[in-house]
Amino acid sequence: xxxxxxxxxxxxxxxxxxxxxxxEVSRQTISSIENGRYNPSIILAFKIARFFDMTIEEIxxxxx
Length: 64
Description:
This protein is mainly α. It has five helices and two strands.
């Protein structure tokens, strides 16, 4: 699964550690999601989408 998290986060001027604190995860988790090494749980995906006032589909791209 691909995602646009890094692009969206940077466009809004938010640092990885700031986002991690709000979402109650580690900075390493944010980094791993952005680099495609980790797929977030559905709950974390919803939290990320809500934080940015977007849908999950606008951030995460499912590819078969």
